[in-house]
Automatic annotation (TrEMBL):
Coiled coil: none annotated. Signal peptide: none annotated. This is YbfB/YjiJ family MFS transporter. Keywords: Membrane, Transmembrane, Transmembrane helix. It comes from the Bacteria. It is found in: Membrane. It is a multi-pass membrane protein. The keyword Ion transport does not apply. The keyword Nucleus does not apply.
Length: 395
């Protein structure tokens, strides 16, 4: 029996920090910072609210395409080559956004930025997980997502702190400048990881990809689709909704995104503990129920109460949905590794792309943003329903 490589606490901390910073760069400083930026960009006249929804859709389309690329290039040797490349693309496209005001060019830049996000969001955690598995520390892999929660807080501070000093395209400068050193340091650390390229499993048999879709996993994929469509509406339009419902100068105009960030930070630890204590599937169903209540609050209680409840409940659950679904999926299909993660992210990316597109159609047809949140309510109810059709992995 081969012993696992030793690992020091300092090594473990460095790797998890590098992964967290890389995810912070692509998923918050690149992606979700657009949410608090959107009301300012609309007010600056860079584009309308409907056009802003279209720009978000282009970014989510890129995210979907990036995740699909990660399905194709899922091996460790692929990750070593592509991770630095797509991190560089991500930083360069964020810098480009500081220089352009044309809607077509903005949409193209956000699309390519999303492609890079999709690849990195799959590959960085997958590489870290493989490294941790070899050292019997796989249970710690979820901590890499803490970077997303902290990044939401950082993005909120960057936007609100520079709101009075910048205008239009200039508002992207804080995120662009911070992304450069974080991406560079993170990728340098991740490229040092000693992870062999595996062509055979532990029994010496050649590694063969098995089907990802079967009677056990299809309900899980459908449930995850509902989660992606349900959470993306508040994560894209909550500050814009606050601007339409609250008077000028109200603390929640910027405060809703801050609440989301604060509740997101402990979410990976919380749902990891709940999944271990009550089981991943029951925890996933509870997660859907809480998230559904959060989005429903904006429809039932328009105004400050609904906004606060939505920010707190969605912020505290959406990363838990990701972690728990990934864990259940891996249990249903052992040894799929990065390929399974990429397939899940691709599906999530598709439904996230649909959400802003549906919102744009609804707004252009004369609907309100509050009523558009009903789409998210229906999607999360759909996801909760199919979560009850997912069998227990041990069954």
């Amino acid at each position: 029996m081969t012993s696992s490589p030793t690992i020091s606490p300092r090594q473990l901390f460095t790797v998890l920090l590098a992964g967290s910073l890389v995810l912070m760069v692509v998923h918050t400083l690149g992606r979700f910072i657009y949410t608090p930026l959107l009301p300012y960009l609309v007010a600056d006249g860079q584009f309308s609210a409907a056009d802003g929804a279209a720009v978000a859709t282009w970014n989510y389309l890129g995210y979907l395409m990036g995740a699909m690329l990660a399905i194709r290039w899922h091996r460790i040797d692929h990750i070593r080559q592509l991770l630095p490349l797509f991190l560089a693309i991500h930083v360069l496209t964020t810098l480009l956004l500081t220089q352009i005001d044309n809607l077509t060019l903005i949409s193209a830049a956000r699309w390519l930025n999303g492609v890079a996000n999709g690849v990195v969001f799959v590959q960085a955690p997958a590489l870290i997980l493989e490294w941790l598995v070899l050292r019997n520390r796989a249970s710690l892999s979820g901590l890499v997502y803490l970077g997303v929660g902290v990044g939401l807080l950082v993005s909120s501070g960057l936007v609100s702190g520079s709101a009075g000093m910048l205008d239009g395209a200039e508002r992207w400068w804080p995120a662009a400048l911070l992304s450069i050193p974080l991406a560079w340091w993170g990728v340098v650390q991740l490229r040092k990881l000693d992870v062999p390229v595996r062509q055979h499993d532990e029994a010496g048999q050649a590694v063969v990809n098995t089907p990802l879709l079967d009677r056990a996993s299809i309900p899980l994929f459908l449930s995850y689709a509902g989660a992606g469509l349900g959470y993306i509406l508040p994560m894209t339009f909550l500050p814009l909704l606050a601007q339409g419902e609250l008077p000028a100068g109200h603390v929640l105009l910027d405060g809703t995104w801050m609440i989301v960030a604060l509740f997101t930070i402990p979410a990976p630890w919380l749902w990891n503990k709940l999944g271990a204590r009550m089981g991943d599937l029951p925890a996933l169903r509870l997660n859907f129920l809480i998230q559904l209540a959060g989005v429903l609050a904006t429809v039932v209680w328009p105004g400050a109460v609904g906004l606060v409840l939505c920010a707190a409940l969605v912020g505290s659950t959406f990363l838990g949905t990701v972690l728990l679904t990934q864990r259940v999926g891996r249990a249903l299909h052992p040894h799929q590794g990065p390929r399974l993660s990429a397939a899940m992210v691709a599906l999530y990316g598709f439904t996230q792309m649909v959400g802003p597109w549906l919102t744009k159609q609804w707004l252009e047809a004369g609907g309100t943003l509050v009523s558009a949140f009903g789409i998210g309510v229906a999607a999360l109810a759909f996801g909760l329903l199919f979560a009850f059709f997912v069998p227990r992995p041990d069954a």
